[in-house]
Design goal:
Layout: E1 15-20, H1 26-32, H2 35-42, E2 46-49, H3 56-64, E3 70-73, H4 78-83
Parallel strand pairs: 1-2, 1-3
Length: 90
């Protein structure tokens, strides 16, 4: 079954945290110019940086991946890390 609507299937997400390693990437450019934030805002979702969070617990999720509404752009790919025995949370 294909879901083509922008409406969520079960749960509405109103915020997403992002984090990234400080290396040059295309998403880094998009975040700098607030293009990603604007795109998410059109869907009613706030995009916020973990590195900019005031709370220590939130910033710690950059390393621990404890938030369910978080994505991280990594400088090392999962496949490379697992192939070289680097512990990366699934």
């Amino acid at each position: 079954m294909t879901h083509t609507s922008l409406e969520p299937l079960e749960t509405r997400i109103d915020s997403i945290w992002y984090t990234r390693c400080p290396v040059p990437t295309i998403s880094g450019v998009a975040q700098h110019y607030k293009w990603l934030q604007a795109s998410f805002r059109q869907l009613g979702v706030e995009l916020a940086s973990l590195r900019g969070a005031a709370e220590t617990e939130l910033r710690a999720s950059h390393f621990q991946h404890t938030l369910s509404n978080q994505f991280r752009e990594e400088a090392i790919s999962r496949q490379y890390g697992r192939a070289h025995w680097v512990r990366i949370r699934p």
